[in-house]
């Protein structure tokens, strides 16, 4: 591992137990998100789930949406739409940057 790996939010670092502790949830909650395809952690050589910081953020957002009363399907769709909006904003910013440089 090098220093750049520490900054990689997609690097699978956390075990299910560590992820649950960080998020303040039970491990079955994380496994249910994996089963639903919301968060798909990588597997270690021994088959154990490994979560990235990015995935922890997704799981945390799902928990917040559940706490607000959304069901799995609605929360999943909201997460997808938020991701699409974030991507669109990045593309707009890039296009504006390009137009400003011409």
UniProtKB/TrEMBL annotation:
Residues 71-98 form a coiled coil. Signal peptide: none annotated. Keywords: Coiled coil, DNA-binding. GO terms for molecular function: DNA binding; DNA-binding transcription factor activity. Residues 13-81 form the HTH merR-type domain. The keyword Coiled coil applies. Gene3D superfamilies: 1.10.1660.10. It holds the Pfam family MerR_1. The keyword Isomerase does not apply. InterPro entries: DNA-bd_dom_put_sf, MerR-type_HTH_dom, MerR_fam. PANTHER family: HTH MERR-TYPE DOMAIN-CONTAINING PROTEIN, REDOX-CYCLING DRUG-SENSING TRANSCRIPTIONAL ACTIVATOR SOXR. This is MerR-like DNA binding protein. It comes from Prauserella rugosa.
């Amino acid at each position: 591992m090098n220093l750049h790996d520490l900054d990689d939010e997609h690097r699978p670092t956390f075990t299910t137990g560590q992820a649950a502790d960080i998020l303040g949830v039970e491990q079955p909650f994380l496994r249910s998100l994996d089963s639903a395809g919301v968060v798909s952690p990588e597997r270690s050589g021994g088959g154990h789930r490994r979560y990235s910081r990015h995935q922890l953020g997704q799981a945390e957002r799902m928990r917040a949406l559940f706490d607000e009363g959304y069901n799995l399907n609605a929360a999943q769709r909201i997460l997808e739409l938020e991701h699409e909006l974030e991507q669109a904003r990045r593309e707009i910013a890039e296009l504006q940057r390009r137009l400003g440089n011409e």
